[in-house]
Amino acid sequence: MSIQFYNTKSRQKESFNPIAAGKVRMYTCGPTVYDYAHIGNYRTFMFEDLLRRYLEFRGLEVTQVMNLTDVDDNTIRRSRERGVSLSELTDEFKTAFHADLKTLNIQPAHHYPAATQYVAEMIQMIQDLESKGFAYKSDDGSVYFEIDKFNDYGKLANLNPEEMVKAERVSDDSYEKEGARDFALWKGYKEEDGEVQWDSPWGKGRPGWHIECSVMSTELLGNHFDIHCGGVDNIFPHHENEIAQSVCSTGEAFVNYWLHSEYLLVDNKKMSKSLNNFYTLRDLMNQGYPADAIRWMLLTTHYRQKLNFSVKRLDEATKAVNRLREFVDKLKSYDRNGSASAKIQVEEAESSFTAAMDDDLNISGGLAAIFDLVRWGNKAMDDGDLSGSGALSLSTLMDRFDHVLAVLRMDSGLEQEFDAAFIEARIAERKQARANKDFALSDTIRDELAEQGIELIDTPEGTKWKVK
Fold first, then answer.
1. Class of 269-405 per CATH?
2. What pLDDT shows up at residue 185?
3. Residue 1's pLDDT band (boundaries 50, 70, 90)?
4. Can you give the chain as a three-state secondary structure string?
5. How far apart, in whole angstroms, are the C-alpha atoms of residue 68 and residue 138?
6. CA-based angle 97:102:104, to the nearest 5?
7. What are the domain boundaries of the chain?
8. Considering only Cβ atoms within 10 Å of each terminal Cβ, which end of the chain, N or C, has fewer?
9. In whole angstroms, what is the distance from residue 398 CA to residue 381 CA?
10. What integer pLDDT is reported at residue 439 of this predicted model?
């Protein structure tokens, strides 16, 4: 079966066929850098990371662009509230964002264009739209896109053209479907913009939010590319307006596949500061939750289903990650040579994983294939049936799976220091206690280390330890 994705525009699954054979060009909406990104944002960024990693797993060469919105209503408002320049504010949160991506083991995009770097190109696109009759200037020096001039306007968000507001304009960057109307391409200068302004044919001002992504995506990926991603909250108005601007400016098709991830809930409620259930990645890390568990939790619910965040799910995630790591460690230390080669099991696991993930990134089915293999491999090792070559083939396949999951060699992200010499000394004391049949002391040592975050694992080769 070919790879299939649910295309928001057609509202059905479609076979994925890249424009250029073997290559994928993908644009993923990044953060607005006026604050720390919250875990709802990272739910979307994690889905995009899974998508890219799986395309690579299938042998495709991916070029990913993720924009950084560093000028819009929110960034300007926050910089004025804090009494700092726009660049000072946004540079702080760009740095924080890249640090968070590293913590969560999200692959870096190939390009991170910032909106302020492309203002000249935005002005050019707006001029193109104006010259072609799709845009007009208002009395305050702003320029608006006239949605009545684009017959396909509203198809991505499934809007009814008859219900759109006529002969009105909206200057805000974000608004609801009920307010569908002409939107700002260029915003004439206002006093509240402070020093944030550029010269343009229409006077001083700044670009609207939507034109930013149209320009950055087409500049770096071409007028027509394969995949555009984001959260469901981006469908309208942002992505709807991107399509209108881009198609009318270039005269070409814009994007073939639109993929959107659902919302993240916290304890089955919408995340909100007023409900005191609003978390950034740093909030969770400061509360002692490991990054690998957070990654697993964000990764393992299908991207088109709402994800319910809870502490219980983080605990379950930790156990799942540890189970995979223990299996891989066990394979690497396995020194028996049974008769089972694992050839059939490896082929079946890879086939089942691929079939599931080909079906619109069905991560549940993919993980089921992996854990079925883990169960078989553990039993084969426990029984001494697995051959040395079988252990190697299982280990190799787990490495391939981990290109998609990216958790086996991931740090917890928690800043903890452990004295390895001290731990080894305590393990030696416990070994002696067990030899002396002093099992009370043996249990005491295990419990003390457990309280410090150290788990002991008794194996035929001796006692090993790991950070929980």
1. mainly alpha
2. 97
3. low
4. CCCEEEECCCCEEEECCCCECCEEEEEECCCECCCCCEHHHHHHHHHHHHHHHHHHHCCCEEEEEECEECCCHHHHHHHHHHCCCHHHHHHHHHHHHHHHHHHCCCCCCCECCEHHHHHHHHHHHHHHHHHCCCEEECCCCCEEECHHHCCCCCCCCCCCHHHCCCCCEECCCCCCHHHCCEEEEEEECCHHHCCCCECCCCCCEEECHHHHHHHHHHHHHCCCEEEEEEEHHHHHHHHHHHHHHHHHHHCCCCEEEEEEECCEEECCEECCHHHCCCCEHHHHHHCCCCHHHHHHHHHCCCCCCCEEECHHHHHHHHHHHHHHHHHHHHHHHCCCCCCECCHHHHHHHHHHHHHHHHECCCHHHHHHHHHHHHHHHHHHHHCCCECHHHHHHHHHHHHHHHHHHCCCCCCCCCCCCCCHHHHHHHHHHHHHHHHCCCHHHHHHHHHHHHHCCEEEEEECCEEEEEEC
5. 28
6. 95
7. 4-261, 269-405, 420-467
8. N
9. 16
10. 86
Predicted local confidence at residue 41, as pLDDT: 95
pTM to 2 decimal places: 0.87
Q: Which CATH architecture has domain 4-261?
A: 3-Layer(aba) Sandwich (3.40)
Q: CA geometry: angle at 457 spanning 456 and 462, to 5°? A: 110
CB burial of 8-32 (b: ≥16 within 10 Å; e: otherwise) equals bbeeeebebebeeeeebbbbbbbbb
Query: Residues 237-262: pLDDT tens digits?
Result: 999 999 999 999 999 999 999 999 99
- Residue 308 to residues 261, 271, 315, 384, Cα–Cα distance (Å): 13, 10, 14, 41
For residue 24 the two structure tokens come to 């994928």
230: tokens are 């984001």
